[in-house]
Amino acid sequence: MSVKPKICFITASELTVRWFLLDQLNALGQHYDVTLIVNTDNADFLVDTGVAVRVLPVRIERKISLWRDGLALLHLMWIMRREKFAAVHSVTPKAGLLAMLAAGICRVPVRIHTFTGQVWATRKGSARRLLKLLDTVTARLTTHLLVDGFKQRDFLIDEQVTTAVRASVLGHGSLHGVDISQFAFKPEVRKVMRQKLNLGLGDVVFIYLGRLNPDKGVLDLAAAFTQAARPNWSWLIVGPDEEKLMPEIMRICESVKEMVHYLGASKHPENEMAAADVLCLPSYREGFNNTVMEAAAMSIPVLASRIYGITDAVVEGETGLLHAPRAVDEIVAKMRLLADDADLRKRLGEQGMQRAQRDFSQAYVTGEVLAFYERVVPLD
User: Fold this and answer.
1) Are residues 44 and 103 in the same domain?
2) Are 307 and 283 in contact (CB under 8 A)?
3) pTM for this entry
4) Are 118 and 194 in the same domain?
5) CA 145, CA 139: separation in Å to the nearest integer?
6) How many domains is the chain partitioned into structurally?
7) Same domain, 251 and 150
8) How many CA atoms lie within 13 A of 87 on its CB side?
9) What span, in angstroms and rounded, lies between the C-alpha atoms of 315 and 207?
10) In which domain, by residue range, is 89 found?
11) 29-69, pLDDT tens digit by residue?
């Protein structure tokens, strides 16, 4: 019986694993000996998922700390020298830098990092220069650099973080694709959710789904909804309030506060999506945005900002409408356009569903990842 090649995934967050990596880890585990290194206090956190990979906790914190980051680097080097992995694959910025440094020092033959968006894209001055430099170092330490969207790849090349020769996109993009069976339009769920939220079946419902963070443009969306809203409109806000923005959002929406519903984080976002007519994402920076594709799979049209990461996920005028970042007046106009034209919403939604099923199913994206690994870490 041949021994499976040993590969290692490294990320800084349990949430990244749960949201984006489970399907890939499960599929790769059928062919490779997979270890997952993650910042966690619970090495058994995957037990309930059925994904059978070994989990090694390493304290990789999101904030920069020379002391803690140095300890994490030494810990990673110790593990890599002991395990002798055939490949190390990192996701998320801090984990990527530390993983690629450790793997380079330990001479791991295949070193992979996946870029999923750049924190520094909206920064200025020294903070931008430093964070960009760290991403450039990460990119240069890799043997294989993956990017989760074509427009983001173009951005990284234009910014001289990497080159066209080194950076690639698997398939059509996306880190993990869409579970088509989970994110499917179900009229009965729509009816139940609207009744639960006391929304009329004829109401026009906009939804924001994601972390409440200023860079996501949620304050712009609050201002636009307040200006645009009509009596039969509602806005659902779904996601963790990491930055404590809800008080400011409700202050902006004071005149329409009865139309705004904050539902918190959701374990089954497809249920809240089912109640919606339009998904809004006025973000300032994104990697390939999977929430957009999940909405598309449910035939929900998208209104989003025209930035890389979103322009890979939304075909303007075909699966959704786009606006300039921070352009509140443009958001207002396009919210009203979508609210007033049910035929437009239907056409955009149907075309989005077809594209999601054709190019971004989880099965397709996972298949692309497996094919990539079979090329760079051949099986006996």
Assistant:
1) yes
2) yes
3) 0.89
4) no
5) 7
6) 2
7) no
8) 24
9) 19
10) 6-177+362-376
11) 999 999 999 999 999 999 988 898 999 999 998 888 889 99
